[in-house]
C-alpha cells in the first residue's frame, strides 16, 4: 500500500497552484449555479440585484 493514494489523504501542505485551481473551479461552479437560479427565479434575481445595488451605494469606501 502506498503512502499517497489520490483523494483519500489530502497532503497537509498543498501547493498554491493547487489551491488556486480548486478555488477557480469552485467560483466557476458557484457562478453557474447563480446564473441558473436567476434564470429559474427572475423576480427574486431582480430584487436581489436591486438590493445589492442599494447596498453598494450606501457603502462608504
What's the overall geometry?
flat
- In percent, how helical is the residue content? 55-70%
Hey, roughly how much beta strand do the residues contain?
under 5%
Report the end-to-end length measured between terminal Cα atoms: 56 Å
Question: What this model shows, in words?
Answer:
This protein has 61 residues and is mostly helical. The protein has one domain. The protein is 69% helix and 0% strand. The chain has two helices and no strands. It is flat. The relative contact order is 0.06.
Summarize the structure.
The chain has 61 residues and is an all-alpha fold. It has helices at residues 16-40, 42-58.
Blueprint (SSEs and pairs):
Blueprint: H1 16-40, H2 42-58
Helix pairs in contact: 1-2
Q: Features of this protein?
A:
mainly alpha; 61 residues; 0% strand; single chain
